[in-house]
Amino acid sequence: MNPAGIGAATVRGDLGEHEERQLAWAYLSRVVLGPCPALTALIDSVGVCEAARAVRERALPPVLRTVTERRRELDTAARDLETIRTRGGRLVTPDDAEWPAWRMLGLAQLTPGRDPDGALPLVFWVRGHRNLSELTEHALAVVGARCSTGYGDRVAGEITGELAARGWTIVSGAAFGIDGTAHRAALTVGGATIAVMACGADRAYPTQHERLIARIAETGLVISEYPPGTFARKHHFLARNRLIAALADGVLVVEAGMRSGARNTVKWARRIGRPALAVPGSVESAASAGCHRMIRDGEAVLVTGTAEVLAETAPSRLPLSTGSKSSEVDRPGGPEARILAALPATGGRWPHDISAMTGLEAAEVRAALVALDMSGAAARGEAGWFRLDRAGEGGE
């Protein structure tokens, strides 16, 4: 008997498609606890509901059977969804309009074999009422030493406060030191900030930051790829760093020792094409030794204030279809044109269905859908992606 598994087949027949898919996403999130390239590929291939069924029934290739075996019978999906709702949150999945799809493109383009920890997040468990996609339109990630100095706190506070006052979202990890300073500076000026957690979004880590994290959830967002109740583990922090980098236009490091986790975040920024910036300190300060090393080795650009951060961190933009004859949408052989032709004017189709119809890789389909969305040619609804009316003029 599995009282927590009320999201299983016993009630699934009474659910709408959206609710069924939410339960499937939540179940798989608990099964793998973090990034899993093989599972993401399976979902892209067969859809999330069929992937969840395959995991439950062990109808999987060996690589997936190994990583799902330990928790495949632990179906707490309905309870997890209720837990996040009671904390003023929700589950955000690739099905949802607020999924930060274009922010995730950098991670989607990494090679799983080379970057096994760089996989796309399966889902985001989110606390707060702001829209995740909208809140990351203009964002700066700020990381640094947990044992920061007065100098580091002052510089981090000045830069992040000024940017937050200009409408930029500050993304960080809610840790002691520079992370906490960056969050507080944004809150002080009434700006927006996002805390990316290495534990469940319903938990506070460190526990001493419980009030700070609650304040962030009130005006910004607290997010995690781990389901409610998950305790922070050492490897979670390293995996979390890729999300901090991916959700922002650039990464700013204010103080870092020679063996700092901030350097790991910079590594991810460089892998996905985000600019990395570092603030220098005294040559006698061990707290700035990591920043100096990154600047010297060309891993980060030296910046000393807000103006230089803005100069180096132009918001990332995707190449969009412009309506000109040279655009991918107008070019008959372009992937966007093939995908647009596969989209219905009413109803919808999911990426794995479009992939099967067009013969394009799922990652290419997702990237093209984001571009079509941003160019106004397509949109996503509860039934999947559909073609907008103006995109079909002169068509069927």
From TrEMBL:
GO terms for biological process: DNA-mediated transformation. Residues 91-312 form the Smf/DprA SLOG domain. InterPro entries: DprA, DprA_WH, DrpA_SLOG. Residues 334-381 form the DprA winged helix domain. It comes from the Bacteria. Residues 315-334 are annotated as: Disordered. Pfam families: DNA_processg_A, WHD_DprA. Belongs to the DprA/Smf family. This is DNA-protecting protein DprA. It comes from Nocardia jinanensis.
